[in-house]
Fold this sequence. Notes:
Elements: H1 5-11, H2 15-31, H3 36-50, H4 54-66, H5 72-83, H6 89-98, H7 103-114, H8 117-128, H9 136-148, H10 153-165, H11 175-178
Helix pairs in contact: 2-3, 2-4, 3-4, 5-7, 6-7, 8-10, 9-10
Amino acid sequence: MASSPASDAAKRPGAARSLSLKGRALRYLSAREHSRAELQTKLARYAAEAGEDAQAVARVLDELTAKGFISEARVAESVVHRRAGRLGNARVLQELRAKGLPDDIVQGAAEQLRATEDERAYAVWARKFGRPPADLAERARQMRFLAGRGFSGASVARVMRTATRGADERSDPFAADLE
Length: 179
């Protein structure tokens, strides 16, 4: 009678626990992209409860990185794709830093986002408000909303100028600002 892989793992000392850590890491990765630092934090918590040491977590993370399951570039791309449509550069970059991504990847994402911030800010403004502010109080409220979403002051000012100028009259509301 052939033995099952589970019973083989149980015969090796420490194998079941490392498989458990690896299985947990793969479960996290199957839900969404995680940076190495995020997985380190989550698995360290789990390993402490299971009586594992930090070296076991490091071995699992090294193995997953070597196999390409953990990719900092994919994490950045995923965050930018999911969040850039609703948030400004500052908030997206804050999320990337919170995930423990290296500075070079964060800077690459910043360059990518910088090119589209005005258009994204205008799209967020149009979805939320859609019409120019009626008075100064409304203008301030709209500006605070965009600033709270992480858009730069310059982008907020350009959106408000475009909104009061009448964006419906032009096909590209930011063409004049770029000249």
